[in-house]
Specification:
CATH topology of chain B: pyruvate-formate lyase- activating enzyme
CATH architecture of the largest domain in chain A: 3-Layer(aba) Sandwich
Largest sheet of chain A: 10 strands, mixed
Strand content of chain A: 15-25%
Oligomer: heterodimer
Structural class of chain A: alpha/beta
Helix content of chain B: 25-40%
Largest interface: A-B, 40 and 49 residues
Number of domains of chain B: 1
CATH class of the largest domain in chain A: Alpha Beta
Distance between the termini of chain B: 30 Å
Number of helices of chain A: 9
Chain lengths: 289, 333
């Protein structure tokens, strides 16, 4: 049995997606489709992980608080992940099995509203999702009603920028079909029939996550220079920034041999030398036309 | 072009908002109580939102006209700005908007009439004085003209207020509507430029330098007062030749008599904005140059800034000797 990763094990720049699903029946088709394996059995939430550890799924249990808690648990699996809540929901008249991505999420009890920015083309129609504490049966508005989205979104937006946090809802009940008649098998079918949409969303979020993680890739030479000389935390930050500039202004050259060749005895002198060198490099945009 | 429109509750019946909703019948329309609910939350990623910005239709409350920052001007004593829009169609890597706003969505304030009332109130507070109004501070004045109809509304408004001057600051070449009407002597159409290699590398989505010069030339022929804004000035390999060539092209295309003003301003950011932009674009060449922290501002060294400003100002003065060349100070953002 694999254990929860203590450190970020993904390759630099690889996208990561965290899914939060309330019920095992909802999660099962996703677990099978994405070939996820159980990990972390002693933890408060059942967690499943892909072989490459880019996709993690937690089964939260029903309700806002549970969904938010599962987000906090999954957040320990790595930074800059895309976040997706998948689950069943009700609507007055949308057909059973239809699927919507939330473009607005309202917490009916807390009053807070979120607007997930749709920076990719949505793979399905979008709608307002209202999160309620008890299953809705009268559907007083044209919104989709669920029990987790607000708890999930409010928590996940603490760990990722809003573009990376989304909620997908599969309609399981409406005025003509009560949620009371739902079976586990039926719930699994409703989610499983929308795996194409779920898969596209996971890929879109992985791409966004990858872009965010690429921005934080450590620059060439950092490890070698830090290994050779003691830098304070502040100096490490300054060095990281300087070496990022180096990679842009002096592409294709490794700063480590250049820097260590001067045999500076301390980090401050080394930083000053690198900065002075970089300040002499004029950005080259090409020849004037 | 616009896939999602956020609209403040109650604005559906506003004629300007309704026209825009009709213009994009396939767009997803999402209602919000106030535009800030969508635009202002923390933890938004400007760079990611630039992939697919939404349009936010809003009603501007509070102060509609503000005093321009010290050092921001083109020769007037009384300088003001107003923003019918927040954010820009283009994606220029040096733009301070990407550090100022958390969201890249376009906010359009549809209550133009309230801006006009505020402009009149401002003029009334300064009787007998010339007041300059800048409309391209938080957006490009013309880039989304086909959507906003901003110039179509405000050019005639300023035309009958001769002691007011409107600057339309832009990189857009969509000037047909201006060319179809009589030039207005107190409306200056001001184009921003960087040398062509820089523009090609960092002004994503903006018309190229040649197209902008062609637009200026047409506007000059139609009698519009023009502005040239060499702002920001960028230090790069071959910058002297780059600016020389740009100024030669401008001088060849634009008669000096058509020029109202020239302004130059070095690259500068409030420090916190620069940090935010740099973290979004850690591999951006234009931000990797020799920028320093000076007070609360990130800019080139004083010496380098002076070298750039003096050189380019002199070249512009040589090319257009009769035209005022104004310098924007580093504190102007």
């Amino acid at each position: 049995m694999a254990l929860r990763p203590a450190v970020d094990v993904l390759p630099a720049g690889a996208g990561r997606v965290h899914l939060v699903v309330a019920l095992r029946a909802e999660a099962q088709p996703i677990i099978e489709h994405l070939r996820l394996s159980p990990v972390d059995r002693g933890a408060p939430f059942r967690v499943f992980l892909s072989v490459d550890e880019r996709v993690a799924l937690a089964i939260s249990g029903s309700g806002r608080v549970a969904a938010g808690s599962a987000v906090a648990h999954l957040a320990g699996y790595g930074d800059d992940a895309g976040w997706l809540n998948v689950g069943i929901a009700g609507h007055g008249h949308r057909p059973l099995g239809s699927v919507v991505l939330a473009h607005r999420i309202r917490n009916r009890n807390g009053g807070r509203t979120w607007y997930p920015p749709l920076v990719f083309e949505p793979p399905c129609p979008t709608a307002t999702v209202q999160t309620v504490d008890r299953a809705c049966t009268d559907f007083p508005t044209d919104d989709v009603y669920d029990m987790e989205a607000a708890g999930f979104y409010g928590a996940a937006a603490r760990y990722a920028s809003h573009e990376l946090v989304h909620c997908l809802k599969v309609i399981s009940d409406n005025r003509d079909h009560s949620a009371a008649r739902l079976t586990r098998k039926r719930v699994g079918e409703l989610v499983g029939n929308n795996m194409t949409v779920i898969h596209r969303l996971v890929e879109a979020l992985a791409a966004l996550s990858s872009e965010k993680r690429c921005r934080r890739v450590e620059p060439v030479g950092l490890e070698a220079i830090l290994g050779a000389t003691h830098f304070t935390v502040t100096q490490q930050r300054q060095l990281r920034r300087a070496l990022r500039r180096w990679s842009v202004l002096c592409p294709g050259t490794d700063p480590a041999p250049w820097t260590t060749a001067f045999r500076d005895t301390n980090a401050r002198a080394m930083l000053q030398r690198i900065e002075a060198h970089l300040d002499r490099q004029a950005p080259a945009f090409g020849n004037p036309r | 072009m616009i896939d999602t429109i956020y609209i403040e509750d109650g604005l559906d019946t506003d004629p300007r908002a309704a026209r825009l909703l009709r213009r994009f019948p396939d767009a997803t329309v999402v209602h919000c109580a106030h535009y800030a609910e969508v635009f202002n939350p923390a933890a938004q990623d400007f760079r990611l939102q630039k992939r697919r910005p939404a349009l936010i239709l809003a009603h501007k409350a509070g102060r509609h006209v503000l005093e321009a920052p010290a050092g921001f001007g083109i020769g007037g004593e009384r300088n003001f700005y107003f923003s019918h829009m927040l954010n820009c169609l283009y994606d220029c890597r040096y733009c301070f908007l990407q550090g100022m706003f958390r969201s890249a969505h376009y906010v359009l304030f549809v209550n133009f009439e309230d801006f006009q009332v505020a402009i009149d109130q401002t003029l009334a507070r300064h009787p007998g004085e010339d007041c300059y109004f800048f409309s391209g501070y938080d957006c490009d004045s013309l880039a989304l003209e086909s959507l906003t109809g901003f110039a179509a509304e405000f050019v005639p408004f300023f035309a009958v207020r001769p002691n007011a001057l409107l600057e339309l600051r832009t990189k857009s070449v969509a000037v047909r509507s201006l060319l179809q009407q009589e030039a207005v002597p107190n409306v200056v159409v001001a184009y921003s430029f960087t040398p062509a290699p820089v523009a090609a590398a960092v002004e994503h989505g903006a018309p190229d330098v040649t197209s902008r010069i062609e637009a200026l030339s047409k506007l000059a022929a139609a009698g519009w007062p023009l502005g040239i804004r060499l702002d920001p000035l960028l230090w790069y390999e071959g910058w002297r030749q780059g600016y020389d060539l740009l100024i030669q092209q401008l001088a060849a295309a634009i008669p000096a008599a058509a020029l109202h003003s020239v302004s130059v301003g070095p690259l500068r950011f409030p420090r916190h904005m620069f940090q935010r932009i740099e973290s979004m674009y850690p591999s951006e060449l234009s931000l990797a140059g020799p920028l320093q922290q000076r007070g609360g501002v990130t800019s080139y060294s004083e010496q380098r800034e002076a070298e750039l400003t003096t050189y380019v100002s002199k070249r512009m003065h040589d090319a257009f000797p009769e035209v005022g060349v104004f310098s924007c100070t580093p504190t102007a953002t």
